Amino acid sequence: MADLRAQYQSVKEEVDRAVLDVLATAQFVLGDRVARFESRIAAVCGAAHGVGVASGTDALLLPLVAMGIGPGDEVIVPSFTFVATAEVVCLAGAAPVFAEIRPDTFNLDPEAVAAKITPRTRAILPVHLYGQMADMGALREIADRHGLRIIEDAAQAIGAEQRGRRIGQAGDAAGLSFFPTKNLGAAGDGGMVLTNDAALAERLRNLRFHGSGGTYYYANIGYNSRLDALQAAILEAKLGSLDRWNEARRANAAYYRQALAGTPLLLPVEADGNRHIYHQYTLRVPEGVDREALRAHLQKRGIASAVYYPLSVHLQEAYARFGEGPGSLPETERAQRQVLSLPVYPELTAEQREHVAAGVRSFFTGRETA
Ligand SMILES: *Cc1c(COP(=O)(O)O)cnc(C)c1O
């Protein structure tokens, strides 16, 4: 579903130079390079501040903690997401409240969110799933009406836009992940919080460094959650390619749109006003078509596919007590039964994507392909 070796070959010179430079300067934790990368990412996303942290998960956890969200509080999240979205709410000591998604975009349904608000609700944590932003205009309106914060899970969405607004603009903070397979990936773990709130940024810088400014005096109980200079250097070396990579993903998605148009599959929808950056190309296998048989058919032809995610968070053993059980989120549960992701990564060659599309089509026509 990704080709990280091909990606490295395409940026090897810049990345190697950056790594050797960090080794030579021996500034490994935070420092000028990390600060420069934080500014560059913030600028790319149109945010005032970037705060580098150890992972995308921490880029969601630290804002919750910095906003004082904890025991007794509720945070509204989708259940159709990677587990970290709900995990961080629990780690902060608050309770995740699962809201339904919209069937077209797989993202939080603002009406469903509004219906889940209680006097304990403190924040909404929307996910920009697969690289397309949730309906931020509607969510901001709901949040403002009820005095709630918004923390965007933008782990899959660096470079996405909605009506000219980028990630982190409608929310109070947004968390990015630099996990190696994300659209901008490190050589290990890394993350960043984007925010326009200077006071919040300051508090995040304090929290990531044990709750101090590095002075050995502690006003807060904090974390060790910093972005390594090596990762920042590698990411900065790759940053110049991000737009090109996102465009290549969009071109692959556009290709699949026409190449798979004749099949019964329900292809991804780019909602009005959105720039989807296709972290994943995720379609629906309709009721009556056997998803596992299609996957086996593809695998026989050497074609990767994946199901993100096979079991929604409210049905997971560890999180069931926060949800209302099977049947409580019908759209979420339908999505989990139907979704299938095809390779869409930027290094995919024209021959490879033709092979993918031909493999998918042959499942329905019964015709064999080479
Ligand atoms: C990857 C991801 C995360 C977590 O990021 P890490 O860097 O792996 O900690 C959180 N939310 C979503 C939706 C993700 O895809």
Coarse shape = globular
Sheet with the most strands: spatial strand order: 1-9-8-5-4-2-3
Helix residue percentage: 25-40%
Bound molecules: pyridoxal-5'-phosphate
Instruction: Write the element-wise H/E pattern from the N-terminal end onward.
Output: HHEHEHEHEHEEEEEHHHEEHHEH
Assembly annotation = single chain
By DSSP, the count of extended strands is 12
| Proportion of strand residues | 5-15%
- What is the rounded Rg? 21 Å
- Ranges with pLDDT <50 over ≥5 residues? none
Instruction: Let me know the largest β-sheet.
Output: 7 strands, mixed
Number of helices: 12
**Taking all residues together, what is the mean pLDDT?**
96
Structural class: alpha/beta
Q: What is the terminal separation in angstroms?
A: 21 Å
